[in-house]
Amino acid sequence: GGILDDYLRTDGVWILSRNKQVYKTNNEKECAEKCEAERNFNCRAFLFTRKRLQCLTLAENARMTVTFNSTDAILYEKKIYLLQCKRGIGKDYRGTEAKTQRGIPCQKWAEKSPHKPNYTPEKHPNAGLDENYCRNPDGDERGPWCYTTDPSTRFDYCNIPECEDWVTHTAEECMQCNGEDYHGEVFRTESGLECQHWDAQEPHMHGFNPEHFPGKDLKMNYCRNPDGELRPWCFTTNPTKRWEYCNIPRCTTNPLVSGLDSQCLSGKGEDYRGRIAITDSGNACQHWNTQFPHRHGWIPDRYPCKGLEENYCRNPDGEKRPWCYTTNSSVRWEYCTIPHCDGTEQGIAGMS
């Protein structure tokens, strides 16, 4: 994977950071390279603005500071600093647990009281010895630990949950397309947070009650994609993080073809793959892979099974019928007139 695979992307979010550097870059990949090379501080995230092509490398991530909406901004946070679980012995654990398994608060790594530490941020600059967070700088087989604030206990281990092994090889644990049909049992988000049960309203109230969405398989607290998001997600059990994507690997085999792509309107037209590219009022459709005159999120690469080819009318989001963004700058989008299928499907995929 590329450099951006190590980051969690959130569109439309800005975070306040006291410690930052500003660069001019051409794209997100270049900005990520600036973050990796940052020497003024430990870069945990970066912001990229599309209009100004501005790159801000940040010492803080969204867990550590204030966030607010900003349409043009994209926030990328290093996943390693978001994980609240450990992989293996947790040498790369960079979460924020700061008490021992017995509940004793940890001593700050930079302090010398009540215990004089052998492991300090100065001696081990790459070990993530921030604040008083549990870490494993010496590769201890029993996992992350910390010096304690109890003068009678020099150090103790921390109770860090194991990360699930997300990359399994069963057909059930991979996703086709955007994971709308994913029925696996992953129940942690990509940063390691446990998912909230779909039939619960705490800590987050929501409208995705399993009874109201019988076809979406909203079982237990498993990651699902009931609303056509980029990939499966869930509400989290962390009161400060409403929802987050889950890390479900893509299946390596192609989905079975369930039927011919339709060249006429059946139902809402979600399977329409015809070549009509003009709206009800006669506006020409904007190409899906362009952002002019209208910026949008329906990017073909992100939605591989929605048929977002050329500028053809489509229904990727369950609207009443197929639609498109228009080439008229004053009309963002409109429905298209698609001929109804007469009883049986007359169209055959590939017909001109």
Automatic annotation (TrEMBL):
Which cysteine residues pair off into disulfide bonds?
C174-C251, C195-C234, C223-C246, C264-C341, C285-C324, C313-C336
Gene3D superfamilies attached to this UniProt entry: Hepatocyte Growth Factor, Plasminogen Kringle 4
Q: What is this protein called?
A: PLMN protein
Q: Does the keyword Repeat apply?
A: yes
UniProt GO BP: proteolysis
Describe the location of the Apple domain by residue ranges: 1-80
Q: Name one GO cellular component term.
A: extracellular space
